[in-house]
Amino acid sequence: MKNYKIISDYQKWQAVVSCDRDYDGTFFYGVKTTRIFCRPSCKSKTPIQDNVVFFDNAATAIESGFRPCKRCCPDNIVFEPELEVIKKAKDIFNATYNMQANLDYVSRQLGVSINHLIKLFKQHTEFTPIQYITKIRVDKAKELLKQGDISILEIALATGFKSLSNFYKCFKDKTGYTPCEYKKSRGEL
Q: Using CB atoms within 10 A of its CB, is residue 142 exposed (0-12), middle (13-18) or buried (19+)?
């Protein structure tokens, strides 16, 4: 849509009900009861029509005392929900790399299915989520191996690998060296 023709409140309401992305940037809507404003494509629960007010831009909504929705981020000029999901997933993976990977938990936290999370991750990164977690684990293991004072078993467990054999396999697949070879070289390989 993105043109500047005048659209009626009825058309705006239909766009809100259908979460029509074509109207994003054309107008915003606010919910009087919550004092939150959204893009027409916001996937939040459809409000009661009598509680909705329309705005031509985000600045007007803010001036009227409404705050931006945390789900659709109407105050951001560019909003790419898929990239937001990837960013949040990476944040979770970076914080929990040393625990057993639980894609079901992560996907529920992000409000997407496991399959959708994997698909988005592959589209926007060069990895599947498991490959990404493995990369983080190997990178952390490399840091610990350079220190030289921690046993390989302790490093494997500290970086979230289930077993020493799994650690050896993943480490060699990613670096071309065994953890022992890497440790002896202090990371100079």
A: buried
CATH of 9-68, one of 3.40.50.880, 3.40.10.10, 3.10.450.50, 3.40.630.30: 3.40.10.10
What's the rounded Cα separation, in Å, for the pair 66 and 84? Answer: 23
Domain boundaries, the chain: 9-68, 80-189
Quick check: pTM over 0.90? Answer: no
- Domain boundaries 80-189, CATH class: mainly alpha
Q: pLDDT by residue (tens digit) across 14-54?
A: 999 999 888 888 899 999 999 999 999 998 899 999 999 99
pLDDT of 55 over the 90 cut? yes
Strand partners, 28: 55
Query: Residues, the chain, total?
Result: 189
Write the pLDDT tens digit of every residue in 164-188: 999 999 999 999 999 999 988 876 6
CA distance 40 to 23: 6
List the one residue out of 88, 76, 85, 91 whose CA is nearest residue 25.
76
CA distances from 173 to 21, 40, 73, 140 (A): 43, 47, 40, 15
The separation between CA 153 and the C-alpha centre of its own chain, rounded to angstroms, equals: 32
Q: Which residues are catalytic?
A: 38
Q: Sign of torsion, CA 45 35 82 135? A: negative
